Structures are given as C-alpha cells and as structure tokens.
Amino acid sequence: MNKDRETFDAVVVGSGPNGLAAAIVLAREKKSVLVLEGRDALGGGLRSAELTLPGFVHDMCAEVLPLTLGSPFLRTVPLSEFGLELLQPQIPLAHPLDGGRAAVLDRSLERTAQGLGGDGAAYRRLMGPIVASWRPLLEILLGPFRWPAQPSMLARFGLAAILPATVLARINFRQAPAQALLAGVSAHSMLSLERPISAAFGLVLAMLAHAVGWPIARGGSQRVADALAAHLGSVGGQTRTNAHISSLAELPRHGAALLDLTPRQILQIQETELPRSYRRRLARYRYGPGVFKIDWALEAPIPWQAEACRAAGTVHLGGTLAEVASAEAAVWRGDHPARPFVILAQPTIVDPSRAPADRHIAWAYCHVPNGSTVDMTSAIEAQVERFAPGFGRRILARSTRNAGEMEAYNPNYVGGDINGGVQDLLQLWTRPVARPDPYATPNPRMFICSSATPPGGGVHGMCGFYAARSALRRGLLASSRG
Ligand SMILES: Cc1cc2nc3c(=O)[nH]c(=O)nc-3n(C[C@H](O)[C@H](O)[C@H](O)COP(=O)(O)OP(=O)(O)OC[C@H]3O[C@@H](n4cnc5c(N)ncnc54)[C@H](O)[C@@H]3O)c2cc1C
Question: Which of 48, 207, 435, 461 has the least CB density, counted as fewest CB within 10 Å?
C-alpha cells in the first residue's frame, strides 16, 4: 500500500464481523474507512472452504447464526440485498439422550414445553416472560453495561441468569430432558456449568430459538462476510486482504485506528503508544478453554436414533445435565473429557448446495483446555456414534483442527478460545479492562472493536458497532467525505 499518499478517517485492523460492523457504522457517517485483513479472505470467523473434498463447503468457524439474525445492529444492514439468505431448519436444536429419546428446542415455545412433559409448565414459566421481552433484553445484553430503561424486566431475567446452569436446571426442572436441554445451551458459555452466569448464555440462546430461530447461511457463513463487505463497499468503505499488521506505523495516515484484535495480540503490535499501566491491565486479561473442531464429508445424513435429531440444525451431544456439567468442569481443570460435550450442526439438511447431490456435511466441536494439541477425533465421533449408530460408516472424509491450530488459523482465537476471552461475571462487561468506555484506550486515537469487548463472542457485530460509536463520539474523524 502507498501509505504516504493515502489518508483515511479510520483504519480497521481485522475483518471479522466486528471489524466489518465498525467500518460500516463509520462509512455510513460518511467517514473514509479502510479495513485491513491479514489473511487472503475477509470475514474472520465467517469464512467457508472446501475443507474435506471438492464440492463440500464447510464453515471454518461460525455456522449457526441466531445472534446474527437477532443483532440490533445487523438488523439495520440490508444483508439480503447483498445475497445473504438465512435458512431455518425445521427444529433449531435437539439434545438426544440414551435410549433413543431427545429433548427438543422448537421454534415454538409452546411445542417445546409440550415436548418436555412434566417439566413443560416450568419451562413456560421460565422462558415465557424472557421471550416476551426479547427485543429490549437483547438491546441491553448485547452491549456495554448500562442502566436499563426497564429495570424490572432485566431484574427478572437477571435473577435466573446469574445462577450457575446446574442450579437453575435443578431448581426448575425435575426430569432429564429439560435439565439436559438447559445444560447444553448453557455450555455455549464455555464456562463450567457450576459457575455463576453460565445460565445466562443458555437463556439467551433458548430465547433466540423462539424469537428468531437458529438459522444457517445458504452457501456457508462466508456469505455473511461477503454481504457485510458488499454493503460496506456500497457506502464507500474499502477493504484490503493479505495485509497483516505488526505495527500501527504500518497503517496509512488516519484519524482513528480500530483494532478487531484481542489483548494479547494488541500487546504484540508496535507503536500503540499505550501507557505501561494499561498494558499491564491488558496482560491480566484472561482467556478460556479452546475448541477442537471436526468437519465431515458424509455419504448420507447422520443416522440419528431419535427422529427429532434428523430435522434439527444443531444437535447437542453429551447426555444428561450431570454428564455435560462434568465434561465442562473437567476442561476447566485442564483435563480432556473422555465423553466431551459436543456441539454439532448439519447444514445440508436445509442447504443441499453445501455438498454434491445426495451427499452431506456436518460440523462439530468440543471444548478442550486452552492451547490443547490433543486429538479429540475419536472422543467426538464416539459421542456421535452413541446417539447415531452407524455414523462412522458414512464418513467419506474429515478435517480436524486442535486448539493450537485454531489460533494458527486466526490469531484472535488465543489458545483456541473462540470467544476472545473468558466470559464470566468478572470479565463479561469489563472486557478488555474495566473502564467507563471499554472500547476506548488511553491512546485517544486507538479503539478496540473485537469480541474481547462487550458483549463478547458471537456473530452479532455489536462490539464493532459500539467501538465505532465511541470513536465518533470522540470527534476524531473530522475529515468527512462530501
Ligand atoms: C469453531 C468456531 C465455531 C463458532 N461457532 C459460532 C456460531 O455457530 N455462531 C456464532 O455466532 N459464533 C460462533 N463462533 C464465534 C465467532 O466466530 C466469533 O465470536 C466472531 O467471529 C468474533 O468476531 P470478531 O470480529 O471479534 O473477530 P474474528 O472473527 O476472529 O476476526 C478477526 C480478524 O482479524 C484478523 N487479524 C488478526 N490479527 C491481525 C493482524 N495483526 N493484522 C490484520 N488482521 C488481523 C484475523 O485474520 C480475522 O480475520 C465460532 C467460532 C469458532 C472458531
């Protein structure tokens, strides 16, 4: 790049959903914006590729997109005009148990409750008020800490959400299916289910299943990145790939720099002009467990024993509440569970374009200790086989990535942590450090816009949205385009 001649109001480093969202917010305000991406394709956690065999299109990272559809900011971006189609599987989520049964999280709260038998009334009582307030709740939860306009609504949610998922499940439900269902959705937190606020993640994901569904992008999640980038281009923003940044001195002249990076990476960037005290605080930032991921090319759909699993976009494998909780607790102790909790998605049940005719793909990961290089292939495949005997015979090819390889693929996944840092009570709203404006840094021209800021991991773009607003508020982006 000829940085001597170029000047931008803002340069965004990293093109994940948060980097692209930040750039869109700024470009819509008629600021000149350039996004620099280290890899050869835009999108960060939104890339898709033929990882196994020709014609089988796998999502390298994010696959299931309730946060994309629910995101207050992304709802304002006309992604469908730029080719994005979100497909809804018949059932968002099934959680099989031994013996051929499964708990089902249906689009309809009522059908979900009916399926939970004796725990149906308790499910209605727990989820009914939360689903009724999903929009204002999401506005509050997907952002920095603020005093809510409707404190009573948040308080009602907060009383359940602050609990460990194991406690909330046992207080509310008596039977294995409902307890297991709550354990599975809560395990997306990547916290031990015995830790406070692990329930919050489960409640939000269950709420989204009823409110907007758990969709999958036709053609793969890369289409979300492509649509975001195309919209950015339409409002005047520019992007460049193969532009890995190691020093802010490498950037063209700019008013503000927004980094779609997490603290450990920021500490490695030169010329950030951050004071030692802030650097020390960044260095104390905590990363959580990593993931081990598998993608399969399959000759036929997965032969689930429980019928509901065949129509579910996502399937949670791990058995009962006690089993899921024990697997997640083991990861936090630094162990690799023999029976890991596995999150599996089967996009080809709604999107046949992702594989050659009559063939299928599946995507799965389990949690592992941060930085793990252990191969979890057999442990994950044993969990699938447990609920779908004969699965192994349908595998045509597989591609795997351990936690260390996840970080090599995308440096934002430090040690394989896909949420950009632990999302516990202490760090959820104080990420990356506790400050009134967590997106701003002591360098008045540098902002952080990655999932290491509130509200954390997921494809919602809200970290980028709030970081861009912070930059705009500080009035650094003076030279607007005509
Ligand atoms: C296996 C896996 C499964 C997931 N599943 C889901 C899911 O189903 N649903 C969901 O909502 N979320 C999911 N996520 C999480 C989601 O992908 C992330 O939370 C999201 O992508 C974070 O967005 P971001 O913009 O903060 O960072 P990222 O998407 O990580 O983007 C950061 C970008 O910065 C670039 N970069 C890094 N360093 C530099 C540098 N020095 N110079 C230039 N560029 C640089 C990287 O190459 C990358 O493109 C998953 C993640 C993984 C890994």
Answer: 435
